[in-house]
Amino acid sequence: MQKISGGVIAPKGFRAIGVAGGIKISGKKDISLIISDGPCVAAGVFTENIFKAAPVIVSMEILKRNPTGIRGIIANSGNANCLTGEKGIEDAKKMAKIVEEYFGFEENTILVASTGIIGKPLPMEIIEYGIRKACEKIKQESSSTFSAEAIMTTDTKIKETAIQHISGLESFRIGAIGKGSGMINPSMATMLCFVTTDVKITQELLQKALKDAVEETFNKISVDGDMSTNDTVFILSSRKAEFSITKKDEKYELFYNYLKEVLNTIAMMIVEDGEGVTKVAKISVINANKKSIAEKISRRVGNSLLIKTMLFGENPNWGRILAAIGSAGENIKPEKLIVKVNDKTIFEKNTYIGYPNNDILKNKYINITIDLGTGKEEFTLYTTDLSYEYVKINAEYT
Amino acid sequence: MQKISGGVIAPKGFRAIGVAGGIKISGKKDISLIISDGPCVAAGVFTENIFKAAPVIVSMEILKRNPTGIRGIIANSGNANCLTGEKGIEDAKKMAKIVEEYFGFEENTILVASTGIIGKPLPMEIIEYGIRKACEKIKQESSSTFSAEAIMTTDTKIKETAIQHISGLESFRIGAIGKGSGMINPSMATMLCFVTTDVKITQELLQKALKDAVEETFNKISVDGDMSTNDTVFILSSRKAEFSITKKDEKYELFYNYLKEVLNTIAMMIVEDGEGVTKVAKISVINANKKSIAEKISRRVGNSLLIKTMLFGENPNWGRILAAIGSAGENIKPEKLIVKVNDKTIFEKNTYIGYPNNDILKNKYINITIDLGTGKEEFTLYTTDLSYEYVKINAEYT
Q1: Inter-chain touch A394–B309, beta carbons under 8 Å
Q2: Which is catalytic among the residues B84, B154, B161, B190?
Q3: In B, which residues are within 8 Å of A351 by CB distance?
Q4: Which of B323, B330, B350 sits opposite A226 (nearest CB)?
Q5: Given a cut of 50, is residue A159 above it in pLDDT?
Q6: Inter-chain touch B305–A394, beta carbons under 8 Å
Q7: Mean pLDDT across the stretch A319-343?
Q8: How many Cβ pairs within 8 Å bridge chains A and B?
Q9: Are A246 and A392 in the same domain?
Q10: Which residue of A has its CA nearest to B349?
Q11: How far apart are CA B175 and CA B259, in angstroms?
């Protein structure tokens, strides 16, 4: 596995750009465009929120109709096009259509995504102008970074990555851009992530790989426990590489691990760029008798305001971790429970020990390991602290 | 129903006091004592957290052994005596024993409660001194307010109330003190509440009334979604009033409603005094097909950080309410859903309307009504905003 530059334009057959279309009053980039040289096999995973934003509904439909003929993705930041009714659906369709018409693509070839504030109609005149500007620009210039920049909202850092596999002629590449820093939780923990690859793969296997990889990466991070209405992960394969996957064999496994690596990189960038984040905590619940219990406890601990504020305050109230574990109820056997913070045991044999040296909380990274001692299942959650800055960002976000 | 003064000493047969024993470095009151003239019928409801604090374990045992012979309650703030192992149990027993010996009561007649930081042993020398001081003091002076003051931690306001029922000779009184402002959530939403009454009632009916009333009051408030290790509600009846309850008749119903009123008063005081609270929101989910769904949605909305920060910021991102409702999944039918904020409809007929005049968020009290339109069940949650002050209090609490 080799890290390479280029983000979503690292795999063969893709161009990308981001422009300032005028949605963001700040004048920052807000229209993101990815285009492929030819039809792509594509897959998607979306928010499970009942109130799916219009672009989610429209893209699900496009993917269903034309899963092997996708030519690109158009996305905007600054407005989520969510809770916007029929008008929102029309607007999302129009975003795709402008690109399709500009490049002479057929219908149902461009996927759509939006991120930003909920409940306001898209300013379509501005958006049309911005999309046309992006279409013009992408003919002369291609930049994954600009494309990534244009989907940022409260994100403070650009999120892109790419890797390649080489073994003789059988090489392939995967690249991705992502955004997300609040409303990060349960079912798929990013707002947007666009992945490109040139691997030769069937649509069925691509969809399966994406779904499973999202489960193992984005679904294991949490900033605030809130579920977005716009969460979308797309993957587009140009199928221009030699590496060919036709069934669930070793080659599929290789690709799947690479894909997980790419999504995990973006997921960790999202956690580290969580709104107002000063600490990152890894919460591993191990030796549970059910995976669902391991997940419940890790989310209980990871989303506890008392633990989040403790991390922020560098204040060694370690007992709050036990209180959160204990609130998960009858599945806990205190006599079997072992809790460790950065490899030091703070609770064992039904006895609270505490942390010998509380300076540990000065670290940016905190590992909390919760060994239930009742089985073999586990779940790991990556989460953050809760700072004044989080409150400020979300109190003032309009 | 008539509000009266006196708190826990309003009912016949009780004395109360609070003193500064020296646990709190600030020199504030930290030892609270309630004593009855004779044996009381008593009942209790406790946290469901697996990690129950030592005084919870000890008091559950005392109540089991001697439910009709309780003589009082000894409580301290500044230290929760939780996660303190065998030593913690001994210390809690000792707290009761000091009072029992001082007054010449039998064993298992004094209930114990503690609140404060988790994971540190009680400073028993200081506590012994404080308890003896309280025992001395209560002989000369009786004050529910001092008693309430002595169980405060991050509370900023004293919480006490009392009411009486009068109809001819059949009068009775109920009084209460309470504390709580953080770790307020799922199963019983207060840290401590001590209730006294002089009603003539059997232990079985008293226990039932308390359990049901807690369900309808303390279990419907939430500040931060965290569950305490020390939650305790005690009720002591001196049985000195004429009003006598022997079965689940109209008189029981009358008493039950009065008890609910008392607990509700304390519960609302706790919400309003929630850590860093600037707003109080009432979230009513109505017309659900199951009560559990109504509760799930109200808790999802009430504990959403995005909604809490929106309330604090007075920032009209009403769409966040829909996003939180939508995250509760398949039980929501958008075409049947009606969402109102202070009686103005913000969502109806699958259409987001928003609030006509966003000044509403300047109010301290916000009513959110979520009509699912799928049945007859309902649940109401009282919750708060999330402010800089909440973060500060919990980041710095040691």
Answers
A1: yes
A2: B190
A3: 85
A4: B323
A5: yes
A6: yes
A7: 87
A8: 195
A9: no
A10: A85
A11: 9
Distance of alpha carbon A366 from alpha carbon B310, whole angstroms: 29
- Which residues in chain A are contacts of B219 at CB distance < 8 A? none
Residue-level pLDDT at A266 = 95
Confidence of residue A190 (pLDDT cuts 50, 70, 90): very low
Which range has the top average pLDDT, A292-296, A317-321, B139-143, B364-368? B139-143
Longest dimension (CA), chain A: 69
Report whether A203 contacts A160 (CB < 8 A): no
Q: B386 CB near a chain A CB, below 8 Å? A: yes
Residue of A nearest to B302 (CA): A226
Tell me what pLDDT residue A353 has: 86
Give the Cα separation of A216 and B143 in Å (integer): 58
Q: Identify whether residues A253 and A319 lie together within a single domain.
A: no
d(CA B322, CA B353): 11
Domain count, chain B: 2
User: Within this chain, do residues A308 and A164 fall inside the same structural domain, yes or no?
Assistant: no
B212 with B339, same domain: the answer is no
pLDDT of residue B188: 32
Identity of the residue numbered B153: T
Question: Any bridge partners for residue A112, and if so which?
Answer: A74
Question: Do B317 and A117 lie within an 8 Å CB cutoff?
Answer: yes
**CA dist., res. A185 & res. A49, Å (int):** 11
Same domain, A268 and A313: no
Based on the fold, state whether residues A185 and A245 are members of the same structural domain: yes
Residue A188 pLDDT grade (very low, low, confident, very high; cuts 50, 70, 90): very low
Rounded CA separation B51/A329 (Å) = 9
Q: Is-contact A288 A325, C-beta < 8 A?
A: no
- pLDDT value for B273: 85
Q: Which residue in the list A84, A190, A217, A229 is annotated as catalytic?
A: A190
Over residues A285-300, the mean pLDDT reads 92
Can you give the residue range of the structural domain that contains B123?
2-272
Q: What is the pLDDT of residue A338?
A: 96
Would an 8 Å CB–CB cutoff place A328 in contact with chain B?
yes
Do A255 and A303 belong to one domain? no
Q: Touching check for A365 and chain B: CB below 8 Å?
A: no
List chain B residues with CB under 8 Å of A84.
352
Q: Are A19 and A150 in contact (CB under 8 A)?
A: yes
pLDDT of residue A186 exceeding 60: no
B226 touches chain A (CB under 8 A): yes
Model pLDDT for residues A89-127, shown as the tens digit of each residue: 999 999 999 999 999 999 999 999 999 888 889 999 999
Of the pLDDT bands very low, low, confident and very high (cuts 50, 70, 90), residue A260 is: very high
CATH code, domain with A187: 3.60.70.12
DSSP at B346: E
Q: Which of B272, B293, B316 represents a domain boundary (last residue)?
A: B272
Judged by a CB distance cut-off of 8 A, whether residue A373 touches chain B is: no
CA of A228 to nearest chain B CA: how many angstroms apart?
7
Partners of B117 on chain A (C-beta within 8 Å) are 317, 319
ipTM of the complex: 0.79
Q: Which residues of chain B have pLDDT under 50?
A: 185-190, 398
Q: Which residue has the tokens 């633990």?
A: A307
CA distance B331 to chain A (A): 9
Instruction: Tell me the per-residue pLDDT of A43-75, one tens digit each, with 9 for 90 and over.
Output: 999 988 888 899 999 999 999 999 999 999 999
Measuring CA to CA, how many Å separate A90 from each of A67, A81, A97, B309, B387? 21, 10, 10, 32, 39
In this structure, what CATH number is given to the domain that contains residue B311? 3.10.20.340
**Domain end marker among A272, A296, A316:** A272
Task: Verify that A316 and A267 share a domain, yes or no.
Answer: no
Judge whether A190 counts as a catalytic residue: yes
- In three-state form (DSSP H/G/I as H, E/B as E, the rest C), the secondary structure along A71-121 is EEEEEEECECCCCCHHHHHHHHHHHHHHHHHHHCCCCCCEEEEEECCCCCC
